[in-house]
Amino acid sequence: MITPPYRIVTPRLVIRCYNPDDAKALETAIHASLDHLKPWMPWAHAEPEDFEAKVQRLRAFRGKFDLDQDYIHGIFAADESRLVGGTGLHPRIGPDALEIGYWIHADEAEKGYATESTAALTRVAFEVAGVRRVEIRCDPANAASVAIPRKLGFAHEATLRRRSATETGALRDSMIWSLFREDFPGTPASAAELQAFDAAGRRVL
User: Fold this and answer.
1) Are the CB atoms for 105 and 150 separated by under 8 Å?
2) Running DSSP on this structure, what letter comes out for residue 193?
3) Residue 188: which residues within 8 A CB-CB, separation 6 or more?
4) Which domains, ranges and CATH numbers included, belong to the chain?
5) Labelling 106: which of 20, 30, 40, 44 has CA 20 to 30 A away?
6) 37 phi and psi angles, rounded to 5 deg
């Protein structure tokens, strides 16, 4: 698998690898969105996190990106003046495959940013990283998240019952949506408008 792009530019967004100096923007976005995120994102229950810990976390994100261990991106407004969410391509679902995760700032919800960024990541996963399969997993109760893979041409493979734990230890269901390389052409995701760049700033798509 080829390393996914470090920077992706879509009509309204810049989706890029985090830098440590993004810590304040990330802290601000998360703190403003905790009530919005906690029902669905287990990591949100560890917030608020100390600022220095946030800096170190972003250093770790960048390090994992450089070492091809995990690919975590921030979703920024086109002028990069604000962070509107987070996303990533995660190689945790086995070889030749990547899983997309996403969250959006509470004030930026219902503007189509999650769909726009997920379409972009789907396209670069197939056309740059060269994987065979892309997956999205979400809680079936999270209607906004469920709508995204459906819009982009993913197939609902299964709903795993009581498979993921909440912060209280309760078990919740998890939907698995997948898209295979041979089914990707002609999907809405394949039409995503974007430019993508590697770590050296060279255009790769």
Assistant:
1) no
2) -
3) 119, 151, 152, 153
4) 7-134+188-197 (3.40.630.30)
5) 20
6) -90, -35
Residues 6+ apart with CB under 8 A from 113: 12, 13, 75, 84, 85, 104
Decide if 21 contacts 60 (C-beta within 8 A): no
Which parts of the chain fold into alpha helices (H)? 23-37, 51-66, 113-124, 143-152
By C-alpha distance, which of 30, 24, 18 is closest to 75?
18
**CA 44, CA 25: separation in Å to the nearest integer?**
16
Task: Report residue 44 as tokens.
Answer: 């949100």
Q: Which residues have a Cβ under 8 Å from the Cβ of 117 and sit 6 or more positions away?
A: 10, 13, 15, 73, 75, 85, 87, 102
* Angle in degrees, 0-180, between the axes of helices 23-37 and 51-66, rounded to the nearest 10: 100
The reported pTM is 0.95
Q: For 117-163, what is each residue's pLDDT tens digit?
A: 999 999 999 999 999 999 999 999 999 999 999 999 999 999 999 87
What tens digit of pLDDT does each residue of 40-85 get? 888 888 898 999 999 999 999 999 999 999 999 999 999 999 999 9
Parallel/antiparallel/unpaired status of strands 133-138 and 97-104:
parallel
